[in-house]
Design a protein that fits this description.
about 325 residues; alpha/beta; D-Maltodextrin-Binding Protein, domain 2; five-stranded mixed β-sheet; 12 helices; 11 strands
Length: about 325
């Protein structure tokens, strides 16, 4: 490259950096749209709204949550993926971002690591393994013993194919060396009601909203999917303590991402805003009451998490021979 070309390239690079810095200094100067791929009232939506409220305050502009459910949250992901990379359209999503292209590579042709810029992983919702209070299974050992004695007899519910409850049960099946039957429903709520009624053997469910059913003796919690015991479920063992590993890392997460090519100064400003929101005692109290675990990491740490998450679910899908139904 000639000296003249080098100078021109350097000038162009400096101009781009200056432009990005100027843009970030003025950002935001209007409302930010935070797109959620799930219905209102669900854990992802609730967490997004709690954080968005406080981000609005510290950014000085409205952060508006917009629900676009459907196609396993891909409608929302696709909307943000093709939005302008200017920091005004963000995605709040969960593990379906990685799982969709793994299960349906012909339908969802995108690489989640390349299509988005991570901002931060807000929180996760640890899974608990539950059965009907009147179930014959009083612990995980008795459930595994029955599953081994009668392959395919036990049933587990989920919110649908490829969701967190489904994949967690597939992880459990592989780790325990048992074969069980998946019964998908249109949402975690209906699946939980079928579990309470005893029409399915068990299910994995986010810890959000479980305590009341336990207190009313409608559900029994067999185990928690965390490395350490949960204070909200005293006396309940962890799957980790039984040698069934990986469930804490596999807990459904709730993170914020922006379209690819969003300038780093804007990403950094959004990351700081989200972390400031998560540091507020009110926010931590609200998320804790939901049963969520606050994370709040850097863009680089969230990127590495997404890479590991993709590898984890690819392995679960392969070992469990999970194929589209």
């Amino acid at each position: 490259m000639t000296s003249r070309k080098l100078l021109a390239f350097a000038a162009l690079s400096l101009a781009c950096l200056t432009s990005a810095a100027t843009h970030a200094a003025d950002y935001p100067d209007r409302a930010i749209r935070m797109v959620v791929g799930y219905s209102p009232g669900g854990p992802t939506d609730v967490i997004a709204r709690i954080v968005a409220k406080h981000m609005s305050q510290n950014l000085g502009q409205s952060v508006i949550v917009e629900n676009k459910p459907g196609a396993s949250a891909h409608i929302a992901a696709n909307d943000v993926m093709h939005a302008a990379p200017d920091g005004y359209t963000l995605l709040v999503t969960s593990l379906t971002l990685n799982v969709n292209p793994l299960l349906y590579p012909d339908r969802y042709q995108y690489d989640p690591i390349k299509a988005f810029v991570p901002i931060t992983n807000l929180a996760n919702n640890p899974l608990v393994m539950v059965t009907s209070y009147d179930s014959p299974y009083e612990d995980v050992a008795s459930l595994i013993a029955d599953a081994k004695a009668q392959p395919g007899k036990l049933t587990f519910g989920s919110s649908g194919f490829g969701g967190s409850a489904h994949l967690a049960a597939e992880m459990f099946s592989t780790a325990a060396g048992v074969k069980m039957t998946h019964v998908p429903y249109k949402g975690n709520g209906p699946a939980l009601q079928e579990t309470i009624a005893g029409r399915i053997s068990f299910m994995f469910y986010p810890s959000v909203g479980i305590a009341n059913y336990v207190a009313d003796k409608r559900l029994r919690v067999l185990a928690v999917g965390t490395n350490d015991p949960r204070p909200d479920f005293p006396g309940v063992p962890t799957l980790e303590s039984m040698g069934l590993k990986g469930f804490e890392e596999g807990a459904p997460w709730v993170g914020v991402l922006a379209p690819a090519a969003t300038p780093k100064p804007i990403v950094d400003k959004l990351n700081k805003s989200a972390l400031d929101a998560l540091a507020q005692p009110e926010v931590r109290e609200q998320l804790g009451a939901l049963g969520s675990v606050v994370i709040g990491d850097s863009p680089d740490a969230f990127r590495q998490f997404l890479i590991n998450d993709k590898q984890r679910w690819a392995q679960v899908i392969k070992l469990g021979n999970v194929t589209p139904e």
